Amino acid sequence: MLEVKNIEARHGLLQAVRGVSFSVRKGEVLGVIGANGAGKTTLFRAITGVHPDMTGSVTLNGQDISTLRPARRVAAGLAMVPEGRRLFPDMSVRENLQVAGEHGRRGDWTLATVLDALPALKPILKSLAGNLSGGQRQAVAIGRALMTNPNVVIMDEVSLGLSPIAIEGLYESLGQLKASGKTGIVVVEQDLRRATAFSDRIICLLEGAITLEGASGELSHDDITSAYFGLKAESHEGSAAHA
Amino acid sequence: MLDAIIQGVLLGGYYAILAAGLSLMLGVTRFLNLAHGDLAVLAAYLVIYLVATWHLPIVWAIVLMLPVMGLLGWALQAFLFARTMKGGFLLPLLTTFGLGAVIQNGIYGVFSSDVKSLGNFIGNLAWASWKLPFHISVGKLPVYIFVAAVVVLVSLQLLLSFTKLGRAMRATTIDEEAAELSGIDARRIQRATVAIAMVLAVLAGAALAMRSLVNPYTGPTQLIFAFEAVVIGGIGSLWGTLAGGIVLGIAQSLGAKISPQLFQLFGHIVFLAVLWWRLKGAGSLGLANFLRSLKGGRA
User: Fold this and answer.
1) Complex ipTM over 0.90
2) A111 close to B (CB below 8 A)
3) Cβ-contact B96, B34 below 8 angstroms
4) Where do the domains of chain A lie?
5) CATH classification of A2-242, choosing from 3.40.50.300, 3.30.1510.10, 3.30.499.10, 3.30.200.210?
C-alpha cells in the first residue's frame, strides 16, 4: 500500500532523516517511536510533501507520489494528522470536517460515518475548533483526515499533550478504525507501551535513522528502550532479521 | 458637520469595494498587491473605452469587464505572483510595485494622460441628489455606490460562509499547509482569490470613474486609501473593510470641511493613529507578527 524507500530529508545543513525505508500494508498499524529530535515529524512531513527538501521515493498503491504536492498526495489516498493538530480555529468543527470531505476522495467516510466512529464530535459540531480541549481537537484532526478517505493515515504525536482520559477515548476510536481493516495506520507515539500494544509492527528512529524494526509482539521492552535511547547500536540489524 | 459625516459614510462604500479585494488577496496569498489601485484604474479605463467607443451601456461594459479582469487576475497569480511568492515576502511587493508602474505607463501610452470619467455617460445621476432636513443634500450616485458596496460584501460573506470555494479560501487563509493536508489545492484557491479581487477592482474602478476623474496615475493614491481602510477595519474582516472605509471617509470629509487641502491629511492621521494602536503590543515587527496585529487584535 504505502512504500517508502531511502528517504533523506534536511533542515538546511542538518540532515534530519537518513535513508529511512518502510512499508505499510492495508489494515496494518505501524508504530513509530523515537525521542524528541529523532526525525519523526520531519520524516512524515517529507512523506506527505510539506517538507520539500527531501530525496527518496514514496509509492502509494503502486503510484509514485514523491513529486506531488501535498493536496495531490491526499487525492492519491495519503492523509496526515499533523503534530499540533493544525485545525482551522476560526471555523466550526463541522466546517473543519466539511472542507476535507469536499476536497478529498469519495469513499465510505462521510460526515455521518466519521461521527459514528468519533461520537465525541457530535455535540461540538457547531463549536469553533479554536475553543476545543486538546482531546476534542485531536478527534477533529483525525476526523478531518478520515474525511479525505485515505488508504493510509499518518498520525503524528497522536497522544501528545492529552489527558489520560482523552488518550483512552482516542485509542478506543482508533481501535475501531483498526478493526475495520480498510486503512493502513501509521502512529507516531511517545508512549512506548501504548505504541507496542496498539501496533502490529514497530520502527524506532534515532538521529534520523531506523535503529529497530520488527513485529511488536516479537520485540522485548528492553530491545525497544535500548533502541529508543541509542544504547544498542547493532539492534536494527539484529531485529530486522526476525521482523 | 452632519452633512460631512453623511458624505464620509457614503464615500466609505467606495473604499470598501476597493479594500475588500485588497484584503481578500492579502489574507489568502499573504502579500500586499501594490498594483491593486492601478488594476482598478485600468479596469476604469477599459470600461470608459467600451462605453465611449463601442457605445455600450455602462452596466454592460462593467459586466463584460468582470470576466476579463477575473481572467487577468487568475493569469497574474498563476504565471507571475505564485512564482514570486517563493522568493520571500519582499519579492511579490517589488513585483507588484513594478506591475503598477507598467500599468500606469501602459495606460498613458494607449489612452494618453488626459483625464477621463464616466460622469459624462450617466446623465443627471452625476449630480442628482435627495434633499434631507437640516439643508442636507445627499447625492444619488454615492448612495447607489454605498448600496452596491453592501450588496458586494453580503455576496462575499455568503460565498465565504456557504460555498465550497469560500470554505477553502478561509482554510487557506488560516493555514495553507493544513489546507493542503486536507486536500485543498492552495494554489488553485489563490488563483481564484486573485480573480475575485480583480472582479472587485472592476467594480471599484467603475465607481471611481463615475464619482470623479481618473488619470493614468490615479492608482497609487487609491491603493493608499484601500490599504488604510483595510488596516483600520482589520485584515481578513469583510465588514471591517466597510467600517474602515467609513471611518476613513468620515475623517477625509471632516478634514475637507475645515479646508479642502486637509481632505487626505485627516484620513492619513486617523490611519496612522489606528496603526500605532494596533502595533502598540506587537513587539517584534516580524511579518507574521505584523499581519497578526493588523487582523484586529494584538499579536
Assistant:
1) no
2) no
3) yes
4) 2-242
5) 3.40.50.300
